[in-house]
């Protein structure tokens, strides 16, 4: 395809997107008005399913299929990174330990915050249907907490304690189980990802049906995927350049 043809094709696509955006903006409710169709539908649905966190109700119940797509994007990013940044055997031999001086107070803060951050991440994932948070946010917190070892100047310790293989398995398993949960809803509830588990008591930990289950699966997938991603980037950054 010639550059001129690519330009016209890009312009046609941009024009189509612009028309869709303008049409959507013109049909939006007036700012400050009383018409909030999505709110009027989402809030009763969350209450009916005993999900105090309205955002998690939308993500893992009302539009759980969209969340599956977002989860798949993370998995695709990990696969792409592994394909592009996987060190060759020669590069692995040139990976050198992290160098540079790290203040003792930074090391101490990193070591102290590591267990606190991991516990916080688990809490955000598990209680995502009750309080602000959920699988995506908690997964990022978990992955970040794990890499406090690197910030503390201990890349060898991070490399020893970082279960890359298990993270790859966990990411794939969590993504697959999300699909299994969707098929279970299809069989038991007549719709893919239907909320078919008992709703429980409003505000209790064991409530909201499949919402906490899907949140935990997404938390595992996001945490494991980010650990694998950062491992590849850090590995590339520590490869010693060959001198010509």
If you had to describe this structure to a student in words, what would you say it looks like?
The chain crosses the membrane at residues 6-26, 101-122, 134-151, 172-193, 213-234. InterPro entries: CPA3_antiporter_subunitB, MnhB. Residues 106-227 form the Na+/H+ antiporter MnhB subunit-related protein domain. It is found in: Cell membrane. It comes from Amycolatopsis camponoti. By secondary structure, the protein is mostly helical. The chain has one domain. It has 11 helices and no strands. Helix 2 (37-48) crosses helix 3 (54-62), helix 4 packs antiparallel against helix 10 (164-189) and helix 6 runs antiparallel to helix 7. The radius of gyration is 23 Å and the shape is globular. The model has no long low-confidence stretch (mean pLDDT 85).
What is the topology?
Layout: H1 3-26, H2 37-48, H3 54-62, H4 64-85, H5 89-93, H6 104-126, H7 135-146, H8 148-151, H9 155-161, H10 164-189, H11 211-237
Helix pairs in contact: 2-3, 3-4, 3-11, 4-10, 4-11, 6-7, 7-11, 10-11
Protein traits:
mainly alpha, 244 residues, MnhB, single chain
- Based on CA atoms alone, the radius of gyration comes out at 23 Å
Shape: globular
Order of helices and strands: HHHHHHHHHHH
The total tally of domains equals: 1
How would you classify the helix and strand content by structural class?
mainly alpha
- Per DSSP, the total helix count is 11
How many strands?
Answer: 0
Helix percentage: over 70%
Strand content: under 5%
Biggest sheet details: none
The poorly predicted ranges are none
Distance between the termini: 39 Å
**If you average the pLDDT, what whole number results?**
85
């Amino acid at each position: 395809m010639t550059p001129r043809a690519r330009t016209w094709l890009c312009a046609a696509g941009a024009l189509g997107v612009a028309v869709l955006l303008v049409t959507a903006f013109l049909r939006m409710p007036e700012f400050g008005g009383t018409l909030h169709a999505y709110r009027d539908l989402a809030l009763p649905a969350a209450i009916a399913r005993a999900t105090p966190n309205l955002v998690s109700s939308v993500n893992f119940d009302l539009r759980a299929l969209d969340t599956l797509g977002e989860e798949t994007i993370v998995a695709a990013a990990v696969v792409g990174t592994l394909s592009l940044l996987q060190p060759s055997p020669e590069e692995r031999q040139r990976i050198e330990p992290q160098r540079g001086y790290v203040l003792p107070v930074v090391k101490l803060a990193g070591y102290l915050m590591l267990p606190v951050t991991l516990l916080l991440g688990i809490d955000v994932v598990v209680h995502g249907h009750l309080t602000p948070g959920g699988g995506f946010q908690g997964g990022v917190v978990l992955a970040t907490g794990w890499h406090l070892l690197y910030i503390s100047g201990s890349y060898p310790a991070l490399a020893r304690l970082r279960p890359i293989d298990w993270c790859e398995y966990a990411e794939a398993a969590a993504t697959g189980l999300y699909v299994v949960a969707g098929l279970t809803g299809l069989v038991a509830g007549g719709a893919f990802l239907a909320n078919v588990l008992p709703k429980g008591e409003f505000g209790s930990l064991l409530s909201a049906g499949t919402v906490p289950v899907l949140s935990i699966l997404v938390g595992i997938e996001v945490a494991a995927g980010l650990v694998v991603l950062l491992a590849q980037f850090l590995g590339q950054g520590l490869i010693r350049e060959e001198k010509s």
